[in-house]
Design brief:
The relative contact order is 0.10. By secondary structure, this protein is an all-alpha fold. Helix content is 57%, strand content 0%. The structure holds a DNA duplex.
Amino acid sequence: GSVSDMLSRPKPWSKLTQKGREPFIRMQLWLNGELGQGVLPVQGQQQGPALHSTTSLQDPLQQGCVSSESTPKTSASCSPAPESPMSSSESVKSLTELVQQPCPPIETSKDGKPPEPTDPPAPDSQPTTPLPLSGHSALSIQELVAMSPELDTYGITKRVKEVLTDNNLGQRLFGETILGLTQGSVSDLLARPKPWHKLSLKGREPFVRMQLWLNDPNNVEKLMDMKRMEKKAYMKRRHSSVSDSQPCEPPAVGIDYSQGASPQPQHQLKKPRVVLAPEEKEALKRAYQQKPYPSPKTIEELATQLNLKTSTVINWFHNYRSRIRRELFIEEIQAGSQGQAGASDSPSARSGRAAPSSEGDSCDGVEAADAEEPGGPAAAAKSQGGPAEAASAPAPREEAPRPAERAEPPPPGTPGPDDADDAGRPRPPDGPDGPDGPAPVPNPAAAPAAGEDAATSAAAPAEGPGAARDGAERSCALPSTSAPAATRRPSSLQSLFGLPEAAGARDSRDNPLRKKKAANLNSIIHRLEKAASREEPIEWEF
DNA sequence: TTGCAGTCAATATC
DNA sequence: GATATTGACTGCAA
């Protein structure tokens, strides 16, 4: 009867509870199994992944760094369904095994990358039998992600780093084999993991894979095997390429391989990577401090003045905001750990505010961070009144939004009005700009000290404040700094998710850095106001 | 359209 | 050679 009902009147996924989703997962797996093999997988014996219960799904994950918070919730659903014929421990095992297989990597991974095409060993590689990628593996990982309890991303990455270094395993190998990511992405992920509740489903996947990998008792051996095989393949290739002129690389048709050597300009020569000069970065940072969300016009001006493509400037702002935000996450974690776990508030709750503010907070961000000060900048700005205020408002405003949780980044949703010049533009949730207005009208005008010379960014604002700001910026902006600290507190993971971020954040407020930021913010506001009140158009000075 | 998340991949740095 | 940094790109959501 239940089956009939389910088949004829399936509820939308979003309306299903975990338990309610289970049958659909089973069906999906069953369908996938058919693709590969055929029959409904009875008891996890064969490939057909038998998803028995949520328990089975979570099991593999729960062994690891699962945040305590989620546990309760899941535990409920975990209760082995007695009624389920398949809910035997075996079935659970099957799923676990499935998931724990040497990860399914990445087929998705770079297309071009022939993980093993050239690798002869692949076939025999028993240890790392890749999961049927297309089949359930891919699906199951997604299902796992969707159903997994909250994981301690920080703890997971810490453990992964330990295992990798202890066993002399590289990020590249790990990333391509286990996560399906490139070395750079792995490095970034391991160094600056975002808290679980801030990750999208896709973003959680690598962490689930890491957790599963950590749970796999043979994880290291498998990777070692891969390493060996890779080496073997490399030697073989090298050998053959030396002997024959023909490099063994499979010439992907029409692909530009030899780009450097290629005599004839490959169709579509790769464009050289843009590398911003330090001065350019400085200038952009300054601009960011004034307006994290510059208007198209401002971007245009910046690009012109710095002699960069507008797309480069746009990308820079996007990347910078995004990275600053991440730094903030780390900061939060640290703060949280310091603050000690306290009562934990629901992740979701936290998440709300967390994200965005980052900008402000970010180190560089003199901007945001400072804004947080309670009466701070905002107040100051206000007092000034007049048009100027509006202009200056931005900064303060950003942060101002939620005095209560200042430490946290402004919620993404924070409505942010924007600058006048940007008016009309959709604003990022954070509400980047000042309260009402974004920076002083013409941004450029708002720009810092007039006297500065674009070229000499360093020289920038002669004002004391400016200088201070720079210092602060530098000191805090560095991600690296935070990272290390983070690493230091492994246990904090729990606290990370478990404790109310607010608490942590609050604690952090007292630190000198924060005060410094506040001071910087004030100075910036002051400058902005000054600039805003000027009549003559001012150019960006860097 | 704009912003963001997640990545890639070139390049820097260790 | 491994790892870190970072400009650019893709896909998605509002």
